[in-house]
């Protein structure tokens, strides 16, 4: 493998080449813009953007544009949960039912099972009940109680620990556990254990449409077939049951890099986060795809065990991943695009990976 000697900042020539590659992808996918950031060996090396905020392509997308990071939020919530494990406030393999007086399941569910999607709790994302409700009242989401009631009516998909199924409801239950244990809202907890220690200025958990008034426009045809709409003024963040974080490419890359470089969790606890509890199978980009606790894992890849998460929902496609051995360096990449397309954020991340593998930056 080519050994790259990285400069503290990626050189201008490389930036322009990368912008051309990303710009071509945006053009092909009819996506207005994307912001991305690169950390190399623990240091920010590139923070830039390509394209536009708006579908008319009149306003350039700033480097610090704000996006919903959607399910990458799970990685951040998982990090907060494991910080409580590290402090002795929670245990991974003890039932969480005592913290949930208003929500019970027939068989005990543990923290580890919630984190790893092995709880058996249902998901709502692919159901017509949920989809129809979002379309009917996009500005008025279900309450936490309504989401939990939905889960109760569906029952468990399998005995906890005996299967794997991605579950947003599982992470809502996790959120409820964390709030019960700490006495803090999920917003306050994440601010305390992650956002404030990392000095993040633009990253937060919104509660209302007013909170997200500065989001970069995000385009989707979910609400009007064959017509792209900016969803930011009417799609309420409460439709993401476990909560959703707003962040920028630079701050998202910083969070993910801090997690993988030992700035947020005890190494022994973090190692468990990286242990695959389920193998999902072959993946065109991540090789053999697994899931740990709050992280998708690319197992046996040319770059070591790659870890991170994707996020998709109305208006945005995003991804953030850490590569432990990318041409001899530890590299964290974040890409955020302002149109909803399956795995588009992940595709942008790997376009950056392939470009980084081809160059040698002299110190």
UniProtKB/TrEMBL annotation:
Ranges where the Beta-lactamase-related domain occurs: 28-341
Entry superkingdom: Bacteria
SUPFAM superfamilies tied to this protein: beta-lactamase/transpeptidase-like
The name this protein goes by in its record: Beta-lactamase-related domain-containing protein
Organism of this sequence: Gloeocapsopsis dulcis AAB1 = 1H9
Upper lineage: Bacteria, Bacillati, Cyanobacteriota, Cyanophyceae, Oscillatoriophycideae
């Amino acid at each position: 493998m080519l050994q790259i000697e990285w400069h503290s900042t990626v050189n201008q020539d490389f930036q322009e080449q990368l912008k051309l590659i990303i710009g071509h992808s945006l053009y092909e996918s009819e996506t207005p813009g994307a912001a991305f950031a690169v950390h190399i060996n623990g240091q920010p090396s590139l923070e830039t953007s390509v394209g536009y905020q708006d579908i008319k392509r009149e306003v350039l997308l700033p480097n610090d544009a704000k996006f919903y990071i959607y399910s990458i939020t799970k990685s951040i919530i998982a990090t907060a949960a494991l910080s409580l494990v590290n402090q002795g406030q929670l245990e991974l393999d003890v039932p969480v039912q005592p913290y949930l007086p208003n929500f019970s399941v027939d068989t005990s569910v543990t923290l580890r099972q919630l984190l790893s999607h092995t709880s058996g709790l249902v998901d709502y994302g692919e159901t017509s009940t949920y989809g129809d409700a979002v379309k009917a009242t996009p500005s008025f989401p279900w309450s936490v109680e309504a989401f939990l009631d939905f889960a109760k009516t569906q029952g468990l998909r399998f005995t906890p620990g005996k299967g794997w199924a991605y579950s947003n409801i599982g992470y809502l239950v996790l959120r409820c556990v964390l709030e019960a244990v700490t006495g803090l809202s999920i917003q306050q907890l994440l601010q305390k254990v992650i956002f404030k220690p990392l000095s993040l200025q633009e990253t937060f958990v919104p509660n209302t449409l007013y909170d997200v008034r500065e989001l970069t426009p995000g385009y989707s045809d979910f609400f009007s077939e064959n017509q792209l709409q900016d969803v930011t003024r009417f799609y309420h963040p409460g439709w993401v049951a476990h909560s959703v974080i707003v962040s920028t490419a630079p701050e998202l890359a910083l969070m993910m890099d801090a997690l993988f470089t030992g700035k947020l969790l005890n190494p022994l606890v973090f190692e468990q986060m990286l242990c695959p509890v389920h193998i999902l199978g072959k993946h065109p980009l991540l090789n053999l795809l697994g899931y740990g606790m709050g992280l998708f894992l690319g197992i046996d890849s040319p770059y070591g065990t790659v870890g991170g998460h994707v996020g998709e929902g109305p208006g945005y496609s995003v991804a953030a991943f850490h590569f432990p051995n990318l041409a001899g360096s530890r590299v964290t990449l974040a890409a955020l695009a302002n149109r909803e397309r399956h795995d588009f954020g992940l595709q942008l991340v790997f376009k950056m990976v392939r470009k980084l593998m081809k160059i040698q930056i002299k110190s």
